[in-house]
Amino acid sequence: MTDDRRELPLAGLRVVELGNYIAAPTAGRLLADFGADVVKVERPRTGDELRQWRLHAGETSLLYRTLNRGKRSVVLDLRTEAGQDVVLDLVRHSDALLENFRPGTLDRWGLSAERLQAANPDLVVARVSAFGQTGPLAPRPGFAAVAEAYGGLRALVGEPDRPPSRTGVSIGDSIAGLYAAFGVVTSLLQRDRRAAAGRAPLGPVDQHVDVALSEAVLSVMESLLPDHSAHGVTRRRVGGRMEGIAPTNAYACRDGEVVIAGNGDAIFARFMAAIDRPDLAADPALQANPARWARRDELDAAIGAWTGTRTRAEVLAVLDGAGVPAGPIHEAADILADEQFEARGMVQHLTVDAGNGPQVVAFPGIVPLFGPTSLPVRSLGPDLGQHTREVLGDVLGWDGPRIEEFLEAQA
Hints:
411 residues, 11 strands, elongated, EC 2.8.3.-, transferase
């Protein structure tokens, strides 16, 4: 490999990614960000369908380049015995496998848990699906949109007098990818601890990381279930607010909008003083959050009257001086110009052919930081099959003629 991963936390680990779209590739991206050698297996000719999503020019979308950074692309036809055999050979040389097919798909392709375990008893397998590997809905297909509705999120997004909205990104997929990556790392830690204690590994037959998109969404729904179970409370959509917490909302200024979170008891007093409403700051009925929530419309009207006569910069300067959490509502251009993101390496500029020849393009950095700035993005999502020859030769030890014969057979 051309990049230097030796000092990264996951250096020396190899992961086979059998994933399309966003969830499993997000897990693979996180592992690759921190040094794992992630070998992404893609179908011949078309590859991961994400290559065509939000494609503005060329053959590979910048969405794909972003979510598959740091990986190596290998083209294999998993519907053929030859392709399955190569995957099993890769598994013998790997630590983990990621997949996000419908449950049972890999079994039909000759890549059952039993075969994976026979190839590598130490292998950690992470499976991402709509509803998990067990239960009555396990066989159903589903994307993040379905999971976000099923897990309770969609009901809370949007204005109360309109149908539910969706967040502007596939948040259910991304959350599931985070859990899958976390599951892989914890399973690898467990594997090493068992080995140190002289205990046999838990292979794919015994244990796997099972991430359901619907459950990943449910897991971030805070007290949705206990509030209903204990008190009969059903949360509803409240637009830009947060149920039961006030004042916190988006507010219009003369030249844009800001988000202000003035809902802490001490913060509220400073907030009201800053907007020249000492009467609200001193009101005994507004000293605790429940009462503020009951009068949220009155508070939002007072705040909006103040912000509406000022620019965003003026509003943010006053609130920063008063110690009130607030920030601008950023679009892409704002993020590119933001000094905070820049200072922490969260906007990184890399050269890529985005369909009109090589150009320098801004990409998001790597989270979390292990120092003052982001780790550098070493490489963007690869061209389809860019590393097939390299992996077959360097990892599996095939010679040139065998590689060319294989590639010709699956072309």
